[in-house]
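Researcher: Hi, I'm a grad student and pretty new to this. My advisor asked me to get structures for two proteins we've been looking at. I'm not sure of the right format, so I'll just paste the first sequence and hope you can take it from there.
Model: That works fine. Here's the first sequence with its structure tokens right after it:
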Amino acid sequence: MNKYLSGYNSNAKIVLRVSIVGIIANVILVAAKLVAGLIFDNLAVLSDAVHSASDLLTSLFVIAAVFLSSPKRDTRHNYGHEKIESLTVLFFAVLLAAIGGLFAWQGIAGLISPRAGEFNIYLIIVTVLSIAVKEALFWYGMHHAKKTKSEILKADAWHSRSDSLASIAVLIGLICSTFMSTNIVESIAVLVVSLFILKVAFDIFRPAVNILIDSAADKKDEQKIIELTQQVEGVKKIDEIKTRIYGSAIIADIEIHVNGKLTVEQGHDIAQAVCDKLENDSSLRIKHCNVHVNPCHCEHEE
């Protein structure tokens, strides 16, 4: 049985569970920030609430992508629909880049035209709560992203981290208001955060694009494919191996040499054994394996 296909449903349930937890947490945070920002008329906290609200949108995109990126094939998509996940990750990267650009603009505007600083213990409590919750969501999401090898969970987790960093910038500004009459320190912190978010956006964008243009699996996975193939009895040599990432799975094309005196059925059995060995290895997440058999007419063969 193909380990990737058999484990897909359980991984999808994990992604859905993580997204639902994120939605509940973000609803609470958005409400708390909006109430605090409106009561105390603080623009920074209100902006932070809007950023948290964007996390609700991304969580809904994650849920939609899980339902749409099914590995099941149809007449128009013979290899399934997992690349929908990569398209969603690409959307996350663009969204993060836009957030980073907005923060950079806000930081520069704050340096050019500083606002009066404001210290308020209630705003600080709400901001600290936001940082704690967002960091918890980040580590929670990254844990399950590594467990399921889900790029979309990884991207969503980094979106939570960007919100945490934004809240840290707000917190710095609120605390510094105790000692300064302007928000210039907050503006500098926002600029630093914007640069980090832009870097994260690029780091998410690059692997998503690589998946969409059929980049090969990493060298570690390819080496393991070679080692497992060589363990199959009857495989004399590996002529060629090609791999491509498909969503969170791998598709492999392999050419092997077998004894040229074997029957077609015997050659097929060896090729099938290679496929079974690779597809049954859960760490590789091989979705489809195609093995081409070449005859090897060697003098030492019996």
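Researcher: Oh nice, that was easy. Here's the second one.
Model: And its structure:
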Amino acid sequence: MLRRSLLVLLSAFALSCGEDSAAPGTQAPGPLPAGEWTWVDLPGSECSDGSPTGIAVNPGPRADLLVFLDGGGACWDALTCFGIGQIPPAAKPGPFGAAEFEEKRSEIPGSLLDREEPGNPYREFTLVFVPYCTGDVHAGDAVQDYPGAGERYHHHGRANLATAGDWLLARLPAPGKLVVSGASAGGFGALLAHDALRARWPSAKGYLVDDSGPPLVSDDFSPALRAAWVLAWRVDEAIGPVCGEDCALDLSRIVPALRGRWPQDRLALLSSTQDEVIRAYVGLGPAGFERALLRLRDERFAPLAGAATFLVAGDFHTMLGSPARFTAGGMPLVEWLRRQVEDDPAWASAGP
């Protein structure tokens, strides 16, 4: 029963995006049109079914860069990746190309990717949307023949991000500021990919915004789930360069490790205190998840200069799809994000 409930909840484990302007184009020679979304096919990138994918880019008036990783569940075996009977897959599969991005665009208004949203601190940034169709929180690089599945599953998220990073490095001006962000599976992905993307622009100021991807301390994050991530996706290869085996046994250690590698970066985690989706994913009840989240705040974020949390009471999942809705301890989320990216010394943890 718990496994079935988890699968149903994971089907909602996502944040989607679209925008209210002309239909997206596809990659063409020369500069991309400013202020418009253009879909870019990336040769060598793959969705779960082996089909090609890419990214969407919206150049802004400044070279500063926001890379947003989409969400959409996670899977690690035949049941979670392919579903059975009335139980759907626990992660969004491929394909994902220009047509799928067009369907996403209706959800951009009001999100952090909406330049017209009042107070959006990224309104002049170049915006990059990274789709999610690999079931591996953007951290995998493995092709699996799961027993009983009858077809292969391509966990290619980390490799796709590397391809996207290389394209952005070659095609865009060097940013003064780099924000690596994502929600749900994309929040975990942003946390795990921050170092690799950051290394492409080492002279930039760096900012992590992890929405609803909390790397709970030690065994507060299910040991079985951690093991599945390593076995199915080879996530250990993603975190190895950052903090080696320490992170494989305790995902929360990536927070101080990132701060050590990039001491000027500002690292942010957003979450509701009893996130219904994530607590089911890690196998905790409402009170247990809240205790684990506060432990993560107190043991990993609070001791670090340049690391902060934005926590809101409730059991909802993700905030960046409509940041204007959220306030923690009297602090509006859009103002909190502005303080982070503008290096305001008043930026600090907000909420319980």
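Researcher: Is there anything I should tell my advisor about the second?
Model: You could mention this: The longest helix spans residues 286-301.
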